[in-house]
Design brief:
The chain has about 190 residues and is of the alpha/beta class. It has helices at about 10-20, 40-50, 60-65, 105-115, 135-150, 180-190, and strands at about 1-5, 25-30, 55, 75, 120-125, 150-160, 170-180.
Length: about 190
């Protein structure tokens, strides 16, 4: 299965998938940090995996220029969390309207263009409460966007401390299934009343 890894960081999703099975193959990774001249995460990614699939450019610029993203089965990404994170007060968190939170729209655009069978995303669990004055609106918008594009979504909060890590690190993971997959039909059966 071909994977595109957005907001790749140092390649966490790639490591997980490719170590889990030889059937997973990362065909493109995108990592860009706009606020620094030295692209530390991209440099680590290159050192770990080589430069064969890494694109170290702004995802929005790539989309605007109609970059020929390869066809893929799975789209993954731990999109930037700063506008949802506890690093900001709830009142100062900008959610989808923030300069990094709005990168969700780039993800949605790539899904619309390439329609992968599956998507797996990760972010801080405070995403579920964003923005402060309309708690939950941003995640509801994401779920609605995915639904409108023909995807079913399962999500859960996972705390790293429950798996032996020495810190509480809660993250929301959401797995998306295109409506022509077996997993979508199984999901649909479980929620039908």
């Amino acid at each position: 299965m071909k994977i595109v890894e957005l907001f790749a960081g140092v390649g966490g999703f790639r490591i997980g998938f490719e170590n889990a099975s030889k059937k997973y193959n990362t065909v493109l990774a995108n990592q860009w940090e706009p606020s620094t001249k030295i692209q530390h995460a991209a440099n680590v990614y290159r050192k770990q995996f080589g430069n064969d699939v890494l694109i170290n450019e702004d995802i929005n610029v790539l989309l605007e220029q109609d970059y020929p993203f390869p066809d893929h089965d799975i789209l993954v990404g731990g999109f930037p969390c700063q506008d949802f994170s506890v690093a900001n007060t709830l009142a100062r968190s900008k959610g989808l309207e923030g300069t990094k939170g709005n990168l969700w729209y780039a993800i949605a655009e790539l899904i619309k263009r390439k329609q992968p069978k599956y998507c797996l995303f990760e972010n801080v669990n405070r995403l579920l409460l964003s923005p402060a004055l309309e708690r939950g609106r941003d995640f509801a918008y994401m779920l609605t966007t995915l639904n409108d594009m023909g995807y079913g979504v399962e999500w859960m909060v996972i705390d790293a401390s429950a798996y032996g890590f020495p810190q509480k690190r809660k993250r929301v993971f959401f797995m998306c299934y295109r409506n022509d997959t077996k997993q979508f039909n199984n999901l649909k059966k479980t929620i039908t009343l």
